[in-house]
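Sample pair:
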Amino acid sequence: MTRPPLLLSVFPTFTVGGAQIRFTTIANHFGRRWRHAIVAMDGNLGARERLDADLDVRFPPVDVRKGDTLGNVRRFHAALAALRPDAMLTHNFGSIEWAIANRLGPVHHIHVEDGFGPEERDRQLPRRVWLRRAFLRGRTVALPSQNLMRIARDVWRLDSRWVRYVPNGIDIARFAGPPLPAPWPGDGPVIGTVTALRPEKNLARMLRAFRLAIENAPARLVIIGDGPERPGLERLAAELGVADRVHFTGHVSQPTRLIKALDIFAMSSDTEQMPMSLLEAMAAGVPAASTDVGDIRAMLPEEGRRFVTALDDRALAEALSALIADPGLRCALGAASREKAEREFDQAAMFRAWADLLDGGRPDAKRVATSR
């Protein structure tokens, strides 16, 4: 019996995040259609808990030395020769050395960019632009946002025939049903976010905006997730005098029930593209207030776009205040968000697109999506 093809997936980190959640969802859906080898450049394999137990998955050890680009390229080239994958899936700039290692190799390569860290919030770094331009040329590049499509075309100057727009999708049915009671103490609507606590998420802005928003009406803030910023954020909440109204849940492997208990979803990021957490909030019928980054404005229903704000504490606070004060508005916006999620972001389309990519489909003029 022929063994399923082997897919090598390389992540800068395999901790729980949007890219890792999407990958594990796809892998679980297709089961043993592929065998998997997963490499985390930083050794963090936290997202492995989301993989089904019956998958054929291994985590090969690879020697990664930070700053040793040439040495890493040689080691990764040797790893490719030893593993002999049928396809390689790399994620974000942190895996670019694997693209270099395979530049003259035979492995079918798909590169995915989900967004940028704080160092590329305002502009693309010239060295990274050059490396992407040089080593992603002639490779399939999958992008989940129209903003990234523009960057790939205009900044990285990649051939549009090789660039695929593959929007994220989620299991809409998982969020069906009425809202759930809030498990957090306190008065007023529950504002919440689901995110890794990293600098580019700018949760300090969230806390400052929350303090301003509750000057005229009570509310609670729930931060679902964990990360290196948590101690500083807890100190800031105390300094702002809102610690009794802010709840840090830590890591939650399946936050569906918590999302369904929110009244308002909020994002304060400096950089995003197509966040999975916003899709989940929309599927749960939760209205959103967010900074204006990536595709967020386009993701939301038209009537919800006035709550997409500048990257500013007071602007975000004003959006939150308007939603806190008007339960009827929250209900209407939540219903519109749910309807749009059902219409445009169900995971079935995402599964079809990724099956085509991972089964070895090559771009051609008829099939490649360049922009919408």
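The chain has two domains: 6-169+347-358, 172-344.
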